[in-house]
C-alpha cells in the first residue's frame, strides 16, 4: 500500500478513469471527483475491491465557480493531504465562434482554466510546506497553435501549457514537479460531447485513453515538464513551429472540419 494520496478531477470517464486505475494499481489512496456521484461511487467500489486501496469520492461540478473551494474545504475537513494533483477535467465546444453557445463556452473556460488554476493555488502551498509533491495538468496538442472551429478550446489549452511550464520553472529548486500532458485525438466521450467524431482529426485515428494516461503517468513519475504521447502528435506539435501562421490556420481548420 502506497502512503500517498492522489486527487484526480474528471475521474468518472476517459483519461481520468484510466489515471484512477493506474494509481490504484500502484497502491495509492485516491480522491476522485466529477459531476456524477453515482458513477464515482461505482468506480470507487470497483477499485477498492480489485486493488484493496482507499478511495474517497467527492462529487463536484467544476463548471460552478464555488466548486474548487468546496472541494478543498472537504479535503481539509477530513484531514486529507494531497500529494499528487491530476488536473484532468476538461471539455470542448465545436463550431464557428458565432454559432456556439456562450453558456457552454463560459463553463468550458471555468473548467479548463479557472478550476484547474484554483485547485493548484489551493493545494500547492501544502506541497511547498512539505517540499514534496507532483502536479499533472492535462493540456493538449491544441495548445501549440490556434484552432479555428474550436477557438476557445485551443486557447484554454494554450493557457494550461503556458501556466504549467512557467510553474514548473518557478518550482525548479524544490522537490515539487509540474507536468503538462499534451495528447492529440484520444478516444473518450470527449469527441462525442464536442461533436467531433466526424471530423478529419478523429477519423485519421486516435490514441486510447489508457495509452495517453500511461504516458502521462510515466512522465509525472520521472518529473518531466512536458509529454506529448504518440510519434505523430510529437511531429505535428514540432512542425507547426516552423510553418507560417496563415498556413497553420488553414491546416487546423481542414482537420477540424467534417470530412
Automatic annotation (TrEMBL):
Record Pfam families: adh_short
Any single GO CC term annotated in Swiss-Prot or TrEMBL for this entry: membrane
Molecular function, one GO term: oxidoreductase activity
UniProt keywords, alphabetically: Oxidoreductase
UniProt entry tagged with the keyword S-adenosyl-L-methionine: no
Keyword Oxidoreductase listed: yes
Family the entry assigns: Belongs to the short-chain dehydrogenases/reductases (SDR) family.
Protein name, entry field: Short-chain dehydrogenase
Source species: Fictibacillus aquaticus
